[in-house]
């Protein structure tokens, strides 16, 4: 996923960009509101998420958020040290999709990024856009919850389908184990880790594509889109 990071502090941006890159994000760094708006001009739908710090040197972050929302529907997550409720409400009213208060936990930030991007995908599907995902020979039909490989239907359990559909929404992006457990099993990580491993192994076997789901040691899993 391509992500636009709007942050005037180069040290903060460098550290965060490194973390995001390790989790599969292609990060573009804008140091000001104007740079952010310029980055969106040639390809307004080219980014999956905009991570917008409100403490910018040239423009008020809220103003930048409003301008971004006028030119693109890309999800925007505001990042700020302002923790009062009024500030959060103001940001959401301007069109922000989420609001993260500094200092934040990196795991939480990653989960929120994935959450708003998935929400955007679901809204597009609900609006009559994409209703199926194609990954080489793999076809995932979202409305009917049917999966086929080279035209042959593969019988999956409900959780297996949910796991595959989650990973397939963002091929190449690493999903943290905790995030997968939260989204697919609607519970916490404790005591569920082995269940996730079993479901991943089952998917690899049923699809007969062991390389489709890659284990990222110490982090989670990502789907590697086949070329044929």
TrEMBL record:
Residue span(s) of domain Response regulatory: 2-117
UniProt keyword list: DNA-binding, Phosphoprotein, Transcription, Transcription regulation
PROSITE patterns, sorted: OMPR_PHOB, RESPONSE_REGULATORY
UniProt modified residues of type 4-aspartylphosphate: 53
Keyword Phosphoprotein: yes
InterPro entries recorded: CheY-like_superfamily (IPR011006), OmpR/PhoB-type_DNA-bd (IPR001867), Sig_transdc_resp-reg_receiver (IPR001789), WalR-like (IPR039420), WH-like_DNA-bd_sf (IPR036388)
DNA-binding region(s), residue ranges: 130-225
Protein origin, superkingdom: Bacteria
Boundaries of every OmpR/PhoB-type domain copy: 130-225
SUPFAM superfamilies given in the database record: CheY-like
Pfam families: Response_reg, Trans_reg_C
Protein name listed in UniProt: Sensory transduction protein RegX3
């Amino acid at each position: 996923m391509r992500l636009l990071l709007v942050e005037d502090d180069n040290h903060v941006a460098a550290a965060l960009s490194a973390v995001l890159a390790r989790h599969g994000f292609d990060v573009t760094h804008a140091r000001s509101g104007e740079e952010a708006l310029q980055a969106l001009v040639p390809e307004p739908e080219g980014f999956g998420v905009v991570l917008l710090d409100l403490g910018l040197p040239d423009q008020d972050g809220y103003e930048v958020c409003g301008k971004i929302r006028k030119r693109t529907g890309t999800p925007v997550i505001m990042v700020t040290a302002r923790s009062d409720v009024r500030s959060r409400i103001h940001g959401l009213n301007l069109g922000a999709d989420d609001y993260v208060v500094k200092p934040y936990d990196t795991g939480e930030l990653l989960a929120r990024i994935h959450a708003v991007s998935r929400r955007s995908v679901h809204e597009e599907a609900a609006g009559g856009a994409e209703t199926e995902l194609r990954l080489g020979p793999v076809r995932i039909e979202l409305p009917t919850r049917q999966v086929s490989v080279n035209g042959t239907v593969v019988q999956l359990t409900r959780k297996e389908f949910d796991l595959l559909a989650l990973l397939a929404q963002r091929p190449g992006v690493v999903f943290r184990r905790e995030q997968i457990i939260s989204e697919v099993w609607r519970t916490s990580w404790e005591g569920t880790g082995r269940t996730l491993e079993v479901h991943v192994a089952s998917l690899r076997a049923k699809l007969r594509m062991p390389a489709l789901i890659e284990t990222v040691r110490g982090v989670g899993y990502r789907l590697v889109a086949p070329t044929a």
